From TrEMBL:
InterPro entries: AAA+_ATPase (IPR003593), ABC_transporter-like_ATP-bd (IPR003439), P-loop_NTPase (IPR027417). This is Heme ABC transporter ATP-binding protein. The keyword Ribosomal protein does not apply. It comes from the Bacteria. Keywords: ATP-binding, Cell membrane, Membrane, Nucleotide-binding, Translocase, Transport. One of its GO terms (molecular function) is ATP binding. Part of the ABC transporter complex HmuTUV involved in hemin import. Responsible for energy coupling to the transport system. Residues 9-250 form the ABC transporter domain. The keyword Membrane applies.
Length: 267
Protein backbone atom coordinates (compact mmCIF):
# COMPACT_ATOMS: atom_id res chain seq x y z
CA UNK A 1 0.00 0.00 0.00
CA UNK A 2 1.33 3.41 -0.93
CA UNK A 3 2.00 6.04 1.73
CA UNK A 4 -0.75 8.22 0.26
CA UNK A 5 -3.32 5.43 0.45
CA UNK A 6 -2.22 4.52 3.96
CA UNK A 7 -2.40 8.08 5.27
CA UNK A 8 -5.33 9.68 3.45
CA UNK A 9 -9.03 9.90 4.24
CA UNK A 10 -10.77 10.29 0.90
CA UNK A 11 -14.30 11.57 0.31
CA UNK A 12 -15.49 10.61 -3.17
CA UNK A 13 -18.65 12.59 -4.08
CA UNK A 14 -19.81 12.04 -0.52
CA UNK A 15 -23.49 12.88 -0.01
CA UNK A 16 -24.14 14.30 3.46
CA UNK A 17 -27.61 14.45 4.98
CA UNK A 18 -30.03 12.79 7.36
CA UNK A 19 -32.27 9.94 6.16
CA UNK A 20 -35.54 11.24 4.77
CA UNK A 21 -34.23 14.81 4.62
CA UNK A 22 -32.91 16.81 1.66
CA UNK A 23 -29.24 16.30 0.84
CA UNK A 24 -27.24 18.99 2.64
CA UNK A 25 -24.02 18.96 0.65
CA UNK A 26 -21.74 16.80 -1.50
CA UNK A 27 -18.11 16.62 -0.41
CA UNK A 28 -15.18 15.63 -2.59
CA UNK A 29 -11.85 15.88 -0.77
CA UNK A 30 -8.64 14.11 0.19
CA UNK A 31 -7.81 14.80 3.83
CA UNK A 32 -4.21 14.18 4.83
CA UNK A 33 -2.77 12.77 8.02
CA UNK A 34 -0.18 14.95 9.71
CA UNK A 35 -2.46 17.96 9.27
CA UNK A 36 -5.37 19.57 11.11
CA UNK A 37 -8.49 19.93 8.97
CA UNK A 38 -11.31 22.11 10.29
CA UNK A 39 -14.96 21.61 9.32
CA UNK A 40 -16.73 24.96 9.38
CA UNK A 41 -20.13 26.31 8.46
CA UNK A 42 -23.33 27.79 9.88
CA UNK A 43 -25.83 25.88 12.00
CA UNK A 44 -27.57 23.17 10.01
CA UNK A 45 -24.95 23.04 7.26
CA UNK A 46 -24.06 19.40 8.01
CA UNK A 47 -20.82 19.70 9.99
CA UNK A 48 -21.59 17.10 12.68
CA UNK A 49 -23.30 14.85 10.14
CA UNK A 50 -20.20 14.95 7.93
CA UNK A 51 -17.98 14.10 10.89
CA UNK A 52 -20.27 11.18 11.77
CA UNK A 53 -19.98 9.87 8.20
CA UNK A 54 -16.20 10.25 8.23
CA UNK A 55 -16.00 8.37 11.53
CA UNK A 56 -18.08 5.47 10.20
CA UNK A 57 -20.92 6.12 12.66
CA UNK A 58 -23.34 7.13 9.89
CA UNK A 59 -23.64 5.84 6.34
CA UNK A 60 -23.26 8.35 3.49
CA UNK A 61 -26.32 9.23 1.45
CA UNK A 62 -24.23 8.68 -1.67
CA UNK A 63 -20.59 8.32 -2.65
CA UNK A 64 -17.98 6.82 -0.37
CA UNK A 65 -15.27 7.35 2.22
CA UNK A 66 -11.96 5.51 1.93
CA UNK A 67 -9.44 5.02 4.73
CA UNK A 68 -6.12 3.33 4.08
CA UNK A 69 -7.28 2.74 0.51
CA UNK A 70 -10.35 0.76 1.65
CA UNK A 71 -14.02 1.75 1.85
CA UNK A 72 -14.81 2.72 5.42
CA UNK A 73 -17.68 0.22 5.51
CA UNK A 74 -15.26 -2.70 5.14
CA UNK A 75 -13.76 -2.10 8.57
CA UNK A 76 -15.37 -3.69 11.61
CA UNK A 77 -16.18 -1.54 14.63
CA UNK A 78 -13.12 -2.99 16.38
CA UNK A 79 -10.86 -2.23 13.42
CA UNK A 80 -12.14 1.34 13.21
CA UNK A 81 -11.67 1.87 16.95
CA UNK A 82 -8.00 0.94 16.65
CA UNK A 83 -7.51 3.42 13.81
CA UNK A 84 -9.50 6.48 14.86
CA UNK A 85 -10.86 8.08 18.01
CA UNK A 86 -14.00 10.20 18.06
CA UNK A 87 -14.96 12.94 20.51
CA UNK A 88 -18.64 13.75 20.21
CA UNK A 89 -20.16 17.17 20.83
CA UNK A 90 -22.14 15.86 23.82
CA UNK A 91 -19.99 13.11 25.32
CA UNK A 92 -21.47 11.68 28.50
CA UNK A 93 -21.19 8.62 30.75
CA UNK A 94 -24.12 6.89 32.41
CA UNK A 95 -22.47 6.00 35.71
CA UNK A 96 -20.40 7.77 38.33
CA UNK A 97 -16.96 7.02 36.91
CA UNK A 98 -13.79 8.76 37.99
CA UNK A 99 -11.68 10.73 35.54
CA UNK A 100 -9.10 7.94 35.49
CA UNK A 101 -11.76 5.33 34.71
CA UNK A 102 -13.14 7.42 31.84
CA UNK A 103 -9.70 7.84 30.30
CA UNK A 104 -9.05 4.10 30.73
CA UNK A 105 -12.11 3.49 28.53
CA UNK A 106 -10.07 4.81 25.64
CA UNK A 107 -7.84 1.77 25.92
CA UNK A 108 -10.74 -0.70 25.55
CA UNK A 109 -10.18 -1.29 21.80
CA UNK A 110 -6.68 -2.58 22.63
CA UNK A 111 -7.79 -5.11 25.25
CA UNK A 112 -6.97 -8.09 22.97
CA UNK A 113 -3.36 -6.90 22.51
CA UNK A 114 -2.62 -4.47 25.35
CA UNK A 115 0.42 -2.25 25.34
CA UNK A 116 3.19 -2.79 27.86
CA UNK A 117 2.56 0.83 28.84
CA UNK A 118 -1.19 0.74 29.52
CA UNK A 119 -1.07 2.51 32.90
CA UNK A 120 1.50 5.04 31.72
CA UNK A 121 -0.60 5.88 28.64
CA UNK A 122 -3.59 6.77 30.81
CA UNK A 123 -1.48 8.97 33.08
CA UNK A 124 0.26 10.68 30.17
CA UNK A 125 -3.05 11.35 28.39
CA UNK A 126 -4.44 12.99 31.55
CA UNK A 127 -1.28 15.05 31.93
CA UNK A 128 -1.47 16.17 28.30
CA UNK A 129 -4.95 17.65 28.78
CA UNK A 130 -4.34 18.98 32.29
CA UNK A 131 -6.68 16.68 34.22
CA UNK A 132 -4.17 14.44 36.02
CA UNK A 133 -4.85 16.21 39.31
CA UNK A 134 -8.53 15.25 38.91
CA UNK A 135 -7.83 11.54 38.36
CA UNK A 136 -9.81 10.28 41.36
CA UNK A 137 -12.62 12.83 41.10
CA UNK A 138 -16.05 11.82 39.83
CA UNK A 139 -16.56 13.00 36.26
CA UNK A 140 -20.10 14.11 37.11
CA UNK A 141 -18.79 16.46 39.81
CA UNK A 142 -16.58 18.41 37.40
CA UNK A 143 -17.21 21.57 35.40
CA UNK A 144 -18.14 21.32 31.74
CA UNK A 145 -14.63 22.32 30.69
CA UNK A 146 -13.00 19.72 32.95
CA UNK A 147 -15.29 17.03 31.56
CA UNK A 148 -14.45 18.10 28.01
CA UNK A 149 -10.72 17.83 28.71
CA UNK A 150 -11.25 14.41 30.31
CA UNK A 151 -12.99 13.14 27.19
CA UNK A 152 -10.20 14.57 25.04
CA UNK A 153 -7.73 12.61 27.18
CA UNK A 154 -9.83 9.47 26.60
CA UNK A 155 -9.71 10.01 22.83
CA UNK A 156 -5.95 10.60 22.89
CA UNK A 157 -5.41 7.47 25.00
CA UNK A 158 -7.28 5.44 22.38
CA UNK A 159 -4.76 6.28 19.64
CA UNK A 160 -1.76 7.01 21.84
CA UNK A 161 0.71 4.61 20.25
CA UNK A 162 1.65 4.27 16.56
CA UNK A 163 -0.05 1.42 14.72
CA UNK A 164 1.98 -1.75 14.01
CA UNK A 165 1.29 -1.35 10.28
CA UNK A 166 2.54 2.28 10.48
CA UNK A 167 -0.68 3.56 8.92
CA UNK A 168 -2.00 6.87 10.18
CA UNK A 169 -4.14 7.34 13.26
CA UNK A 170 -7.08 9.76 13.13
CA UNK A 171 -8.63 12.02 15.75
CA UNK A 172 -12.15 13.30 14.99
CA UNK A 173 -13.44 16.07 17.27
CA UNK A 174 -16.90 17.63 17.24
CA UNK A 175 -16.76 21.14 18.74
CA UNK A 176 -14.11 20.25 21.35
CA UNK A 177 -13.72 23.88 22.46
CA UNK A 178 -17.41 24.61 23.12
CA UNK A 179 -17.17 24.20 26.92
CA UNK A 180 -13.62 25.49 27.31
CA UNK A 181 -12.41 28.87 28.51
CA UNK A 182 -10.13 30.93 26.31
CA UNK A 183 -6.86 29.53 27.67
CA UNK A 184 -7.98 25.90 27.43
CA UNK A 185 -9.29 26.41 23.89
CA UNK A 186 -5.80 27.35 22.77
CA UNK A 187 -4.12 24.68 24.89
CA UNK A 188 -6.34 21.91 23.52
CA UNK A 189 -6.08 22.93 19.87
CA UNK A 190 -2.35 23.53 20.25
CA UNK A 191 -2.06 20.00 21.65
CA UNK A 192 -3.85 18.30 18.76
CA UNK A 193 -1.92 20.40 16.22
CA UNK A 194 1.34 19.17 17.79
CA UNK A 195 0.04 15.61 17.54
CA UNK A 196 -0.57 16.15 13.85
CA UNK A 197 2.82 17.70 13.16
CA UNK A 198 4.99 15.56 15.45
CA UNK A 199 3.22 12.18 15.28
CA UNK A 200 1.55 12.27 11.89
CA UNK A 201 -1.96 11.96 13.31
CA UNK A 202 -4.77 13.17 11.08
CA UNK A 203 -7.04 15.59 12.95
CA UNK A 204 -10.56 16.56 11.86
CA UNK A 205 -12.24 19.15 14.05
CA UNK A 206 -15.64 20.82 13.84
CA UNK A 207 -15.32 24.46 14.93
CA UNK A 208 -17.44 27.60 15.02
CA UNK A 209 -14.64 30.07 15.77
CA UNK A 210 -13.07 31.20 12.51
CA UNK A 211 -10.03 32.67 14.22
CA UNK A 212 -9.27 29.40 16.00
CA UNK A 213 -9.46 27.65 12.64
CA UNK A 214 -7.13 30.20 11.06
CA UNK A 215 -4.62 29.72 13.86
CA UNK A 216 -4.64 25.93 14.23
CA UNK A 217 -6.07 24.29 11.09
CA UNK A 218 -3.89 23.69 8.05
CA UNK A 219 -6.93 22.98 5.86
CA UNK A 220 -10.63 23.77 5.99
CA UNK A 221 -13.77 22.08 4.71
CA UNK A 222 -16.27 24.94 4.46
CA UNK A 223 -19.97 24.01 4.22
CA UNK A 224 -22.67 26.53 3.48
CA UNK A 225 -25.62 27.05 1.17
CA UNK A 226 -25.38 23.50 -0.12
CA UNK A 227 -21.82 24.11 -1.31
CA UNK A 228 -18.47 22.78 -0.12
CA UNK A 229 -15.06 24.44 -0.46
CA UNK A 230 -11.88 22.59 0.53
CA UNK A 231 -8.33 23.88 0.74
CA UNK A 232 -5.73 25.68 2.85
CA UNK A 233 -7.54 27.52 5.62
CA UNK A 234 -6.39 31.04 4.80
CA UNK A 235 -7.42 30.58 1.17
CA UNK A 236 -10.83 29.09 1.92
CA UNK A 237 -11.71 31.56 4.70
CA UNK A 238 -11.47 34.80 2.80
CA UNK A 239 -13.73 37.80 3.42
CA UNK A 240 -15.96 37.01 0.45
CA UNK A 241 -16.59 33.44 1.63
CA UNK A 242 -17.35 34.61 5.17
CA UNK A 243 -19.86 37.16 3.86
CA UNK A 244 -21.48 34.54 1.63
CA UNK A 245 -21.73 31.77 4.23
CA UNK A 246 -22.38 33.69 7.46
CA UNK A 247 -23.70 37.01 6.22
CA UNK A 248 -21.15 39.12 8.11
CA UNK A 249 -18.61 41.66 6.92
CA UNK A 250 -15.07 41.26 8.17
CA UNK A 251 -11.63 42.76 7.90
CA UNK A 252 -8.41 40.84 8.30
CA UNK A 253 -5.56 41.71 10.62
CA UNK A 254 -2.28 39.97 11.29
CA UNK A 255 -1.41 38.93 14.82
CA UNK A 256 2.14 39.53 16.04
CA UNK A 257 3.11 36.03 14.94
CA UNK A 258 1.77 36.67 11.42
CA UNK A 259 -1.41 34.57 11.70
CA UNK A 260 -4.42 36.06 9.90
CA UNK A 261 -7.36 36.89 12.19
CA UNK A 262 -10.70 38.49 11.35
CA UNK A 263 -12.68 41.28 12.97
CA UNK A 264 -16.35 40.87 12.07
CA UNK A 265 -19.48 43.01 12.11
CA UNK A 266 -23.05 41.92 11.35
CA UNK A 267 -24.48 43.13 8.06
Amino acid sequence: MSAAACDGLVCDQLGVGLPGQPLLVTVHARLQAGRVSAILGPNGAGKSTLLAVLSGARAPRSGSVHMQGQPLGRFSAQELASRRAVLLQEASVAFDFTVREVVEMGRFPHRAAPSRQESAIVVQAMEATGVAHLAERSLNALSGGERARTHLARALAQIWEPRPDRCARWLLLDEPTAALDLAHQHQSLGLVRRWALEQGVGVLVVLHDLNLALRYAHDTVLLGGGQCAVGPTEQVLDAAAIARVWGVECSGVRARDGVLQYLTTAQ
